[in-house]
Amino acid sequence: MDIERLDLNLLVTLDTLLVERNVSRAAKRLHLSQPAISTRLTRLRELLGDPLLLPAQRGMIPTQRALELQALLHAAIEGVRQVIATGSPFDPATARATVAIAASDYVQYSVLMPLALTLSREAPGLRIAWRTIDTGLLEAQMARGEVDLALTTPGTAPENLRMRTLYREEYVAIVRPDHPALSEPLDLDTFCRLEHVIVSPAGGGFHGPVDDALAAVGRSRRVALSAPGFLVVPEIVARSDMIALVPTRVAGDRVGRVRLLAPPLPVPGFDMAMVWHERTTTHPLHRWLRQRIGELVSASGKDGGEMPVPAPPGT
After folding, report:
1. Which PROSITE patterns match (predicted)?
2. How far is CA 171 from CA 85, 252, 303, 307, 309, in A?
3. Per-position pLDDT tens, the chain of length 315
């Protein structure tokens, strides 16, 4: 094989095709036409002496030779990108890129929304794609470049990814302001008697950390509604006599629509972390973005938001 006939554009095209395994998606990602991608693939087949990708019912299937090349090729291209970036000062004001960030609806609201507003001023050329997080697919999505950064709990983060803890989150109880059955402080009997809204990200679950805490003291509650995300919960509570425990960052700016109460028993909170792939660790843009997210979270308060968490009864 004459390596001088292999230019970088051909290798980038092959790397993208091996990730996408679809000509139209590769063309969209590289901002090229489908015929241009097909022409490059033909040249690659001739130069490497292998079909590389074979037509299938859905997309394309890589040959064994292509699979052997994939990891080494991707690492080589990332190395070239890092060499080019080294020594070039990163300027967010002039940067042009698209970054995909995966998170739950709660994190999109509490962390990514302030980030998007900040980036619109500081880095107007950046496009941010929010994606619903799926921790089971996250490692593969990051390896393929479909997700660049994710925010999730440390316990659900894949072991092979880089991670930095951002903050500690706690729970607060919410009810509608004129709830007829409640007074402060919220006692355990009333808490157990009310109908509850619970969040089940996978859908349909009726058991959570609160139920484990109640079982530890020999109590239980009635969960009347299971929702797939946190954002709708304050609105449901505001229009009913139901009660819910939500992260403080969800409840903090809804004072007035809902009333905030300390839970009547200790309910463990959780940590939130940033997770990313090794391929973006030293990339100037991604390094700056991770730093900016950390700064924004720190500025909002270490207790999970500007709103103080009510003290439990008797403290």
Report:
1. HTH_LYSR (PS50931)
2. 42, 11, 11, 12, 8
3. 556 667 888 999 999 999 889 998 888 888 888 899 999 999 999 999 999 999 988 889 999 999 999 888 888 887 787 676 665 678 999 999 999 999 999 999 999 999 999 999 999 999 999 999 999 999 989 988 889 999 999 999 998 899 999 999 999 999 999 998 877 789 999 999 999 999 998 778 899 889 999 999 999 999 999 999 998 999 999 999 999 999 999 887 788 889 999 999 999 999 999 999 988 888 889 999 999 999 999 987 644 333 333 333 333
Residue 166: CB partners within 8 Å, gap ≥ 6? 111, 151, 271, 272, 273, 274, 293, 294, 297
Sign of CA dihedral 43, 49, 51, 53: negative
Token pair for 149: 């950064």
Q: Buried b / exposed e across 232-253, counting CB within 10 Å, b at 16+?
A: ebbebbbebebbbbbbbbbbbe
- In terms of Cβ atoms closer than 10 Å to its own Cβ (0-12, 13-18, 19+), residue 288 is middle
- Write the DSSP symbol of residue 214: H
Token pair for 26: 């590769």
Backbone angles phi, psi at 195, to 5 degrees: -80, 140
Cβ proximity of 77 and 15 under 8 Å: yes
Dist. CA 311–CA 263, nearest whole Å: 9
Q: How far is CA 309 from CA 38, 156, 169, 257, 312, in A?
A: 58, 26, 10, 17, 9
- List the one residue out of 75, 90, 51 whose CA is nearest residue 285: 90
Q: Which residues contact 109 (CB under 8 A, 6 or more apart)?
A: 230, 231, 249, 250
User: Which class for 81: exposed (0-12), middle (13-18), buried (19 or more C-beta within 10 A)?
Assistant: middle
Single out the residue of 109, 255, 253, 230 nearest to residue 175, CA to CA: 255
Phi-psi region of 46 (alpha: psi -120 to 50; beta: other; left: phi over 0): alpha
Tokens of 52: 């590389």
